[in-house]
Amino acid sequence: MALVFQYGSNCLERQINGKERLCGDAKFVCIAETVDDYRLAFDVLSAKRGCAASDIVASPGSKVWGVLYEVPDYLIARESAKSQGRKSLDAIEGQGKNYRRTTIALRRDDQQFVNALTYRVINPTLGLKTNLEYVGYIVAGLREHGIPEAYISEVKGIAKANNPDIGEQLELL
User: Which residues of 116-134 are buried (b: 16+ CB within 10 A; e: fewer)?
Assistant: First the structure.
């Protein structure tokens, strides 16, 4: 099993485990935050969603919270998943096109340190805007797993700065 850190819409179990994604094979482990300093950003275009999707970018003094899942090893890479008639996490995340798979150091909520796979944007693009639906998935996923409310407020603030047009509606999330 691979340990995978999700910080965007795949924090929400019905997203990552939906029938078009991992079909229930991603198993929740715990919540965690980055050891190194990162902040959430919306800097890559998701053609399917029609908005900017999330990324983590280096940012002194900031941490990103997210969800750790165990994912069967064969569901990570395209080739091994395809051989089993399944969609891979690499395909879901756009590995090699929008994102690159990398390893990141995390501190679990029980204070243990672990390394996990995650996906970071290859070519960040400034000026893209996210939308309320996408941010709603992130917020719902963070809440679903008990991420601190202070961090959820930070995410909403980042989204509002990214797209002021959705600011009022973000307050209702």
Answer: bbbbbbeeeeeebebbbeb
| Class of residue 66 by CB neighbours under 10 A (exposed 0-12, middle 13-18, buried 19+) | buried
Nearest to 104 by CA among 144, 140, 135, 64: 64
Q: Which two tokens stand for residue 132?
A: 């309320």
Strands 2-6, 65-71: pairing kind: antiparallel
Range list of H helices, the chain: 13-16, 78-83, 89-93, 132-144, 149-162, 167-171
Q: Is the pTM of this model over 0.85?
A: yes
The rounded distance, in Å, linking the Cα atoms of 124 and 2 is 26
All domains in the chain, ordered by first residue: 2-171 (3.10.490.10)
6, two tokens? 């999700």
What is the biggest distance separating any 2 CA atoms in the chain, rounded to whole angstroms?
A: 46
**Which tens digits make up the pLDDT trace of 84-105?**
999 999 999 999 999 999 999 9
